Every structure is written in structure tokens, then in C-alpha cells.
TrEMBL record:
Domain of life of the source: Bacteria
TM segment ranges: 32-53, 65-84, 145-164, 170-189, 259-279, 285-304
Keywords attached to this entry: ATP-binding, Membrane, Nucleotide-binding, Transmembrane, Transmembrane helix
Name the record gives this protein: ABC transporter ATP-binding protein
InterPro entries in the record: ABC1_TM_dom, ABC1_TM_sf, ABC_transporter-like_ATP-bd, ABC_transporter-like_CS, P-loop_NTPase, Type_1_exporter
Location relative to the cell: Cell membrane
Alphabetical list of PROSITE patterns matching this protein: ABC_TM1F, ABC_TRANSPORTER_1, ABC_TRANSPORTER_2
Keyword set includes Nucleotide-binding: yes
Length: 562
């Protein structure tokens, strides 16, 4: 089979679940039409078999060997054609399922990359994860069922025409019976849609709760909070279970209707056909054909009911995808360029001189983080980079030239070297230098495989201080034009902090670096210190000068101690 198609980079602004499903169908129109063609032919072959079998029985009754051989050959040909079309229908069904599902993965991943820091502010982790866990399967199934559903409609119409041409009452019975069954199933779809939506919301919330517990399990054990959070998780999981039971209640009725309603129609068609045969109005062969038609109709009619169910689930899943696609990034870029230079935040007054090691101490950590976000273009603000407004530069250029490294960054699963050297172009010497600057050699030496050791999810095998030092190594190896570090030593001991401060100054000598910290050990080794109070620059100068001349700065960095 061919490789799956790429998602359309120029995807239009889609704001409704139905339009998203329709957009998906248009993107794979050729494969979808091919699958519908095979599915339709597959159903039609099955629909013709009862008629051929009936003719064969009539040939047996008439003791016509030639006619029997002819109809047997036709039946064999139909069987071979059914086998071929069935194989191709299934292949195209799987292809369309995968194409729709993984196109959804592509567009949501592209959107997540486009949103960047905006995404975690607007949606929970569990809600995003649930799209990849289950919603893509429902969207894929909605494309898959279009093949068999369309073919089922054609098969029902074909059987109806054959029955009408043979017996008008039987044909009319099927013609009016099928729409009545569809109307009977209709009232179940609205509550099913509503309950499925509620279940998906609760499942997303539960996934978020699980992710939070796993991420903070070490802290929970330290404070003895495992039982409290386990009880909360149990309560939320019970709500999800009850919501699932309510969904299953409607689905069970729907499943029962798939058996009951076609069964009633079969019984009626068979009974009427038998009465015609007893009265001598139709031959025995046609009676057998009518019975086989009635049995055959179970398949396409159940497929129509299944289509209603899967399209409903696909509509709910598409709604969750739309919630992600409808989010706009908080910041956007332009097309201008900058030769670099002074980085300045006009609102706070923080100015970072090129080639200097600057520290920013704030009386409240959130103020320092807000300024760092503006300087890194993760939040809007009046920031200049050299002679250009930062907002006018392309986002990709800003990300490559200005790196904001905070403590919320994570280590990913993979080889440790790959996690540290994300670009893959650092030499062994550069890696060793970065490890030395971050005082992280002991971490690597303690691992059996060293830099080839495999990091587990979120680096759980490392302590908080070790993770912080490894994140610092990763930031140093990235070697950006401007490096902004947010509390890079808050989780390490004093001796390691002093060594990191000294080595960091040497590692970034001649390069633009801003360290957001209130640690005296770090502040004392920087070229320039900026003190921010309530989001505005209050004082600037050397660390010791500010200690002597700014009581506010002194109180912040010494925590009120002598």
C-alpha cells in the first residue's frame, strides 16, 4: 500500500466537527471513493447470490442439467468476485482508517507546535492526551464506516428493486420497512451523543489527574499525601465509570435494535413469501431466494445502525480536535530581521547588554518569570532586540537566537546524550565542557552506560537537583545567542551552586546571558545585577554595591538575614 498522505499545511479555519470530518473526507477523496466502489461491489455480489441460488434450485426442480451447470458456474464466479472485492474493501477500509486517524495526529501535532507555550495555558494535559489515545480511533472509524455504509445503502436498494420486480408486496414491504427501522433508531442517537461527550470530558480530566500524580509522586511520598490523592483519583475514576455505564446503556439498546428490528423484518418477509408459495403464486426457488434475501438484509441494515453509532462517536471526537485547532497562539511573528544587540523590555526597564553576564533579582518570582517570557517572546510585550521590535521577527528566528530555560522543562525518553545534545552536532569535548560547567559529571559517572544510558519518562530516575543540572547542560549545549536561565540552581546544594556560578561565568564568557535568581552565590559572580520590584526595575549595579545601597535588594537576596 502507498504511504499515508501528509496533512494539508494550508488547512482552512475549521470551527465545527462536521466540517472537520468533511475536510478529512475531501483530503482522502480518491482512496475513499475507491473503497466505496469495492464495498458497493462486495455488497452487490452478495445481493445477487440469492437470486442465482433460486434459479439453481428451479433448475434442479426442472431436472435441467445444463441450466444447473450454468447457474452453478455463475455462483462460483460471484463467490470469487466476492472474495476479491472483500479483500480490497478491507484493505481500503484500513487505509482510510489510518489516513484519517493519523492525519488528525499530524494536524494536532502541527497545531501544538504552532501554539507552543499557549497550549498548556489553555488545555489540560489529559485533554490533549485523550485525542491521541481514543479520539483518533473514532475519527478513523467514521471514515471506515462510510465505505460499508454507502455499499449497504446500494445493496438494500438493489434487493428492493429485485423484490419489487418479482413480487410487488414483498418489495414494498422492504422499501418501507428499512426507513421505519432507521426512524426507530434515531431517538437513541441524541442521548448517545450527549453521554459520550460527557464521558470524554471526564476521561480527559482523569488523565490530567493521573499525569499530575505521577509527576509529583516523589513529593507526595515525602509529605505523606499518597492516600489523599489516591482517594481523589478513585472518586474521579468512579465518575468516569458511571459515565461509561450510562453510555453503555444507550449502546446496549442500540445493539439490541440491530438484532430485533432486522429480525422482525425478516420474519415478516419470510412469512409473506411463504404464504405466496403455499398459494402457488411463486415457485419454490423464489421462496428460497426471498428467505435468503431476508437473511442477507440483516448485514446491510446492521451496518446502517453501526454507521449511526460510529458517526456519532466521530462527531464527538472531532469536536475535541476542533477545541485544539480553534486556539490561536498568544504571540505571532513577523518578517523583519535583526542583527542583535541590546535586549530590552520597555515595561519593566530590564536591559540586557550584549556579551555580558547579567542577573535579575525580583522580590516576587512570578515577576521574573513574566519578564523572561516577554524577553523570550513567550508572552506579548514591548521588547526590542537591537534596533528591531522583537514582535516583528519570525518566531522560528526568535526561538533559535533566544533561549529561555526554566525549571518546567522536562527530560524526554531516550539516550542521555541525545537528550542533552538535542541538535546532535556537539563534539565529545563540548559535551564534557557543558557537564563540567553544570557540575553534572558525577551524574553521568554514576550511570552504568554513561551518556548512552536510557532516560525514562520525564527523567524520573534523577533527583530534582540532578534534573536541574542536566537541564542546564542541555541549555549550554544549545549555545544560543541569548541565554535566559530562570533559577538554574534553586534545587542544588550550596557547594554545587557556588561551583556552577563560577563555571557558568567562564562557559558563557563574551556571550549574552541573563540569570533570573536571588541566590547571593550566583549574583556575586555576574557582571551586572538588575533588581526588580513589583515588575519594575528599582536598582542596578554590582551585587555588593546593591547590598550596601539598596535595602530592598538586600532584604530580598538575604531573606532578611544579616
Amino acid at each position: 500500500m502507498r504511504s499515508l498522505p501528509e496533512a494539508d499545511p494550508g488547512m482552512p479555519d475549521i470551527r465545527s466537527p462536521f466540517r472537520y470530518l468533511w475536510w478529512n473526507a475531501r483530503r482522502q477523496a480518491r482512496s475513499l471513493l475507491a473503497g466505496i466502489g469495492f464495498a458497493t461491489l462486495w455488497w452487490l455480489v452478495q445481493a445477487l447470490m440469492p437470486a442465482v441460488l433460486g434459479k439453481g434450485i428451479e433448475a434442479v426442480t426442472a431436472k435441467d442439467s445444463g441450466a444447473l451447470l450454468m447457474w452453478a458456474s455463475i455462483l462460483l464466479g460471484l463467490g470469487l468476485l466476492q472474495a476479491f472485492t472483500g479483500i480490497m474493501r478491507h484493505r481500503m477500509a484500513v487505509y482510510n482508517w489510518l489516513a484519517a486517524a493519523y492525519r488528525t495526529v499530524q494536524v494536532t501535532t502541527r497545531q501544538a507546535t504552532r501554539l507552543g507555550a499557549t497550549l498548556p495555558k489553555r488545555l489540560s494535559t489529559g485533554e490533549v492526551v485523550s485525542v491521541g489515545n481514543s479520539d483518533i480511533a473514532h475519527i478513523g472509524s467514521s471514515m471506515d464506516i462510510l465505505l460499508r455504509g454507502t455499499g449497504a445503502v446500494v445493496a438494500i436498494v438493489t434487493v428492493t428493486v429485485i423484490l419489487i420486480s418479482t413480487s410487488l408486496p414483498l418489495g414494498l414491504l422492504v422499501l418501507f420497512g428499512v426507513p421505519l427501522m432507521a426512524v426507530a433508531v434515531g431517538p437513541l442517537l441524541r442521548p448517545l451523543h450527549r453521554r459520550q461527550g460527557r464521558q470524554r470530558e471526564l476521561t480527559g480530566e482523569l488523565s490530567t489527574r493521573a499525569a499530575d500524580i505521577v509527576a509529583g509522586l516523589r513529593v507526595l511520598r515525602g509529605i505523606g499525601g499518597e492516600q489523599v490523592f489516591a482517594e481523589r483519583y478513585r472518586q474521579e475514576s468512579q465518575r468516569v465509570r458511571h459515565a461509561g455505564v450510562r453510555v453503555a446503556g444507550v449502546e446496549s439498546v442500540l445493539e439490541g435494535a440491530q438484532i430485533l428490528l432486522p429480525g422482525l423484518l425478516i420474519a415478516i418477509v419470510t412469512g409473506v413469501g411463504a404464504s405466496f408459495a403455499v398459494a402457488g403464486e411463486i415457485p419454490t426457488g423464489q421462496l428460497v431466494a426471498f428467505y435468503l434475501y431476508a437473511v442477507f438484509l440483516i448485514g446491510p441494515m446492521r451496518t446502517l445502525t453501526e454507521a449511526a453509532d460510529k458517526l456519532t462517536k466521530g462527531h464527538v471526537a472531532a469536536g475535541r480536535v476542533i477545541r485544539i485547532l480553534a486556539i490561536d497562539p498568544e504571540v505571532t511573528g513577523g518578517t523583519a530581521s535583526s542583527e542583535g544587540g541590546v535586549l530590552r523590555d520597555s515595561y519593566s526597564g530590564v536591559t540586557v547588554q550584549p556579551g555580558s553576564l547579567t542577573a535579575m533579582a525580583a522580590n516576587a518570582p512570578e515577576h521574573a518569570i513574566a519578564i523572561a517570557d516577554r524577553l523570550g517572546r513567550y508572552a506579548g510585550g514591548d521588547v526590542t532586540f537591537g534596533a528591531s521590535e522583537l514582535a516583528t521577527l519570525p518566531i522560528d528566528e526568535v526561538r533559535s537566537r533566544i533561549l529561555v530555560a526554566g525549571n518546567d522543562a522536562r527530560l524526554f525518553t531516550g539516550k542521555l546524550r541525545d537528550e542533552l545534545d538535542v541538535r546532535g552536532d556537539a563534539s565529545d569535548e563540548q559535551v564534557c565542557q557543558a557537564l563540567h560547567a553544570a557540575c553534572a559529571e558525577d551524574i553521568v559517572e554514576a550511570l552504568p552506560d554513561g551518556l548512552d544510558a536510557r532516560v525514562t519518562e520525564s527523567g524520573r530516575e534523577f533527583s530534582g537537583g540532578q534534573q536541574q543540572r542536566l537541564r542546564l547542560v542541555r541549555a549550554l549545549l544549545a549555545d544560543p545567542e541569548v541565554l535566559i536561565l530562570v533559577e538554574p540552581t534553586s534545587a542544588v546544594d550550596a557547594h554545587s551552586e557556588a561551583r556552577i556560578a563560577e563555571r557558568l561565568a567562564k562557559a558563557r564568557a563574551g556571550k549574552t546571558t541573563l540569570i533570573c535568581t536571588t541566590s547571593p552565590l550566583v549574583l556575586d559572580r555576574t557582571d551586572h545585577v538588575i533588581y526588580v520590584e513589583d515588575g519594575r526595575v528599582l536598582a542596578e549595579g554590582a551585587h555588593r554595591h546593591l547590598l550596601d545601597n539598596s535595602p530592598e535588594y538586600s532584604a530580598t537576596v538575604t531573606r532578611g538575614e544579616d
